Amino acid sequence: MVNATTPLRIGYVLFPALTALDLFGPLQALNFLSIKQNITLSLISTDLEPVSIDRTILDGVSQGMLGSSASPYFSQFVLPTHTFTDAALNDLDVILVPGGPGTRNLNATQPAVDWLRARMDSNSSSPSGGPDYMLTVCTGASLLARTGYLEGRNATTNKAAFDWVRSVEHADKVNWVPKARWVVDGNVWTSSGVSAGTDMMLSWTEHVYGRNASETARITMEWNALNQTDDPFAGLYGLA
């Protein structure tokens, strides 16, 4: 799949109140990877308006579960590059889905779920019929579960939100692994909470580009990576 003359096309799904490190941790590893590897990046949302980080912000005011926080005006945003209606995204090789409090807003994330389901059905670049790789971070696994694509597969997610993720549509047909930093099942990679996404991304980098590429990114980031089975948080939340 990796070809020096053909870019690897990566798409990252955005939605309001996604968690910062779910997005920027893996992106940091990809930024270093892009120095020597030919890859492209699309940040995808319902429209091209700025997307809020860790809380939903409307007209400068935080909404929902974080609306009553001590710092309602502490805000961050990320700018999408493409929308879900952009036909140029039909042939993405890799799709990443972050988590965050916004995943609990089922209505707001339905466009992302619908788009993910369509990508599973329409992209024929891999034997499974979807993108070559699908990666989720934290509760981003709930969006992929809602498409039905995880049915019969092994997966993991944020341990603090483990029970909630297992409650979404189609999630009862997923084999949720309680103790794992990340889980690989075929072309689907799912990570535990927040920082685990960066460990998963570094492992994916090694899988696709080799250990030298992964270690170069890790050392440059000064990142102390955990192994796939390193998951102290499963016990903390009574899952192991």
UniProtKB/TrEMBL annotation:
Source species, domain of life: Eukaryota
Gene3D superfamilies: 3.40.50.880
Organism annotation: Diatrype stigma
Domain DJ-1/PfpI: 19-204
Secretion signal span: none
UniProt-listed CDD domains: GATase1_PfpI_2 (cd03139)
Name assigned to this protein: DJ-1/PfpI domain-containing protein
